[in-house]
Amino acid sequence: MGHEEGRPRDETALKAALSLVPFVGGALATVFGDEMDRRRERARETASVVAESVDAGELVSRLEEDQRLAALFAQAVESGARTTLREKRRAMADAVSRAVLDTARVDEGQLIIAALSDLDVPHLRELEAFRRRADAAEPDRQDAAARMIETSTSGMISPIEAALMRHGCIWSTSLSVLGGSTTHWGVTGFGRALLDELQGDDSGAA
After folding, report:
1. Is 193 exposed, middle or buried, given 0-12, 13-18 or 19+ CB atoms closer than 10 A?
2. CA 191 from centre of chain
3. Can you give the pLDDT at residue 186?
4. Which of 83, 142, 201, 203 would you call most buried, defined as having the most Cβ atoms within 10 angstroms of its Cβ?
5. What are the tens digits of pLDDT across the range 108-118?
């Protein structure tokens, strides 16, 4: 079977369409094909991390028996294929592995994979910056998730902050003051656990 024959039909059709673009079609089709090859390899890598963490027989049995686990596994592999960050692929695979070994952690896995599927380098960089600033501002507060930083703001939040809030990674509360408002920001327990996941430490996972 030839190389092209082994590709999904829709991918071959897209390559054919790209090749029709005047002057650069052949080059674009090649770039597209190379990226699809990389995505397949990233998907294989994500699945392999899960397979290395769980007994093969148990993994297949659990995925066949539990549709939620199967869906979680599929979501991790699909999202892993799209991200170029190896840390994200490993973290998503680890979340699946924990859910396979303990079904009580399926919900946790869904939250982790949903967040990592949506958040990319700019979001994670901002989340880490929030954590460092909050920890530096209130290092003695025992409840790390309650540590906060104070900023003067117009009340508008950036798209990055909105995405972090949507996934429950940061929290904020605003107080009206003369001439503007003061906003307190903090990183939630889930946001801190997510950063720990990416750094290879799941001891803080919820």
Report:
1. buried
2. 12
3. 92
4. 83
5. 999 999 999 99
